[in-house]
Specification:
Blueprint: E1 7-13, H1 18-32, E2 36-41, E3 53-61, E4 64-65, H2 67-75, H3 77-80, E5 85-91, H4 99-108, H5 110-115, E6 120-125, E7 127-128, H6 135-143, E8 149-150, H7 154-169
Parallel strand pairs: 1-2, 1-3, 3-5, 5-6
Antiparallel strand pairs: 3-4, 7-8
Helix pairs in contact: 1-7
Bound molecules: flavin mononucleotide.
Length: 173
Amino acid sequence: MTDTKPRVLVAYATWAGSTAGVAERIAEVLNRNGFAAEAVRAKDIRDTASYAAVVLGTAVHAGRLHPDALQFARRNATDLGTKPFAAFVVCLAMTATDEKGRTQAERYLEPIRRQAKPICEGRFAGAYDPQKLGFITRQIMKMIKAPPGDFRKWDEIEARAAGLAPLFTARPA
Ligand SMILES: Cc1cc2nc3c(=O)[nH]c(=O)nc-3n(C[C@H](O)[C@H](O)[C@H](O)COP(=O)(O)O)c2cc1C
């Protein structure tokens, strides 16, 4: 039997894996909401034409999003403009309790917005494990007082993913 559920791509770009975890959870939630969603590394996707809707997630290092996310957005900009497209960023700026961190996180998706305008954006606190880094990077992270830990709020991520379902069902204008 053919699967008639709308196909959704949750593409992600990650260095240490926390963005992959968020993308997988978003795909799981979409699957529970009537979609055939899959989380795939952005660099492994040549073309988004066969998907009804697309989500793109990226990690941030030194103020810049992952190059694979930007390349994905550039490569598929025309197609993304024709279908529901959402984007999210996973970063430590979102662990800040003040408005400054949130404003900073808001800026990270700007290079994606220039390629294709998302109908919905997510900004999620990520995870940082010093054991996954080399000595020098670890020292830099210490200097900028980056807090080690996993700050991903799964309830919030799931709620935002569930909120995508009605947006992905509606046809784009
Ligand atoms: C070397 C390095 C630089 C980072 N730079 C930033 C940054 O500029 N802004 C920010 O909000 N988070 C920054 N982070 C935090 C990461 O965005 C966060 O750990 C994220 O969860 C990483 O995603 P990943 O596990 O998918 O690679 C940095 C992390 C590392 C290890």
